[in-house]
């Protein structure tokens, strides 16, 4: 969250993989978006709505059981059809493109702090890619986007079909387009992204996707492994838009989820609220105890 800038020292440019992988994608007809919401496999669970109401937010939640092909959703129409800026969930795509293009070698690559003091203390230091991802360091990933370049970034987004379901808007300013409402995604598109990332079905090398999956693993215990990326920014009217996208694994079986919420302008409890809603939805559906 926040439109700030950083300028680090130039990193070595490793051999890009874009052209080959793009042809591979086109040949096999892959795309990010997964049309998981079909009449045959969707169950709308209105009992999940109470977690949104209790926190005075609107939004939607969807969970896909890949093994059974079942989809549990709250607010199906919004999940499938409404679009929102991706905010810091775009760090998933940004990381994939940066790694695949050779802009960063791996998640140990450091971009030096530019010396500008920003509101999040953890951002005000030299950061490796891994730590920048975990801290959701906006300036670090803005610098990565600048190094990727507008033309290369646009080609990748077009190839992936990311944020392209309802619009073909060009990305605009290279280091803010995912923060300033230039591009928008549906929750269903976000679910398609994380599902294909998990199964190595995106047009990137296995190594690239494995690094991003490793960065996304936030909780790992005997009962479950929870991998996700959060996002938080503002809609055109000033409302807060927040996300959590990822998957939970229990007994080596993945379940993919997307939570999207909208909160009134001025609220500052977004980080707590989004994780509270996510975990209450997951617990109600029987997760987080290792019994699935």
TrEMBL record:
<dbReference type="GO" id="GO:0008658">
    <property type="term" value="F:penicillin binding"/>
</dbReference>
<protein>
    <recommendedName>
        <fullName>Beta-lactamase</fullName>
        <ecNumber>3.5.2.6</ecNumber>
    </recommendedName>
</protein>
<dbReference type="GO" id="GO:0005886">
    <property type="term" value="C:plasma membrane"/>
</dbReference>
<keyword id="KW-0812">Transmembrane</keyword>
<keyword id="KW-0732">Signal</keyword>
<dbReference type="GO" id="GO:0008800">
    <property type="term" value="F:beta-lactamase activity"/>
</dbReference>
<dbReference type="GO" id="GO:0046677">
    <property type="term" value="P:response to antibiotic"/>
</dbReference>
<feature type="domain" description="Penicillin-binding protein transpeptidase">
    <location>
        <begin position="80"/>
        <end position="278"/>
    </location>
</feature>
<dbReference type="Pfam" id="PF00905">
    <property type="entry name" value="Transpeptidase"/>
</dbReference>
<dbReference type="InterPro" id="IPR050515">
    <property type="entry name" value="Beta-lactam/transpept"/>
</dbReference>
<dbReference type="InterPro" id="IPR012338">
    <property type="entry name" value="Beta-lactam/transpept-like"/>
</dbReference>
<feature type="modified residue" description="N6-carboxylysine">
    <location>
        <position position="91"/>
    </location>
</feature>
<keyword id="KW-0472">Membrane</keyword>
<dbReference type="InterPro" id="IPR002137">
    <property type="entry name" value="Beta-lactam_class-D_AS"/>
</dbReference>
<keyword id="KW-1133">Transmembrane helix</keyword>
<feature type="transmembrane region" description="Helical">
    <location>
        <begin position="20"/>
        <end position="38"/>
    </location>
</feature>
<feature type="active site" description="Acyl-ester intermediate">
    <location>
        <position position="88"/>
    </location>
</feature>
<dbReference type="GO" id="GO:0071555">
    <property type="term" value="P:cell wall organization"/>
</dbReference>
<keyword id="KW-0378">Hydrolase</keyword>
<dbReference type="GO" id="GO:0017001">
    <property type="term" value="P:antibiotic catabolic process"/>
</dbReference>
<dbReference type="InterPro" id="IPR001460">
    <property type="entry name" value="PCN-bd_Tpept"/>
</dbReference>
<comment type="similarity">
    <text>Belongs to the class-D beta-lactamase family.</text>
</comment>
<keyword id="KW-0046">Antibiotic resistance</keyword>
């Amino acid at each position: 969250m926040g439109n700030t800038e950083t300028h680090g020292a130039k990193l070595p440019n490793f051999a890009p993989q874009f052209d080959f992988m793009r042809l591979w994608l086109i040949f096999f007809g892959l795309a990010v978006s997964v049309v998981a919401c079909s009449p045959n496999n969707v169950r709308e669970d209105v009992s999940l709505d109470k977690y949104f109401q209790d926190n005075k937010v609107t939004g939607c939640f969807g969970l896909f059981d890949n093994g059974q092909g079942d989809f549990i959703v709250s607010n199906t129409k919004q999940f499938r059809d409404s679009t929102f800026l991706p905010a810091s969930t775009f760090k998933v795509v940004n990381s994939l493109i940066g790694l695949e293009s050779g802009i960063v070698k791996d998640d140990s690559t450091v971009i030096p702090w530019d010396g500008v003091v920003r509101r999040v203390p953890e951002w005000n230091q030299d950061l490796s890619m891994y730590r920048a991802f975990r801290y959701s360091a906006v300036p670090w990933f803005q610098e990565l986007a600048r190094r990727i370049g507008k033309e290369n970034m646009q080609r990748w987004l077009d190839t992936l079909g990311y944020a392209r379901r309802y619009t073909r808007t060009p990305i605009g300013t290279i280091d803010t387009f995912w923060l300033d409402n230039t591009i928008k995604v549906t929750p269903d598109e976000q679910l398609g992204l994380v599902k294909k990332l998990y199964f190595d079905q995106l047009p990137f090398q296995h190594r690239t996707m494995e690094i991003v999956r490793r960065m996304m693993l936030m909780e790992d215990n005997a009962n479950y492994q929870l991998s996700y990326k959060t996002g938080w920014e503002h809609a055109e009217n000033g409302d807060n838009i927040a996300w959590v996208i990822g998957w939970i694994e229990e007994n080596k079986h993945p379940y993919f989820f997307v939570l999207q919420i909208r909160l009134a302008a001025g609220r500052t409890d977004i980080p707590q609220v989004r994780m509270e809603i996510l975990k209450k939805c997951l617990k109600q559906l029987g997760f987080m105890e290792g019994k699935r």
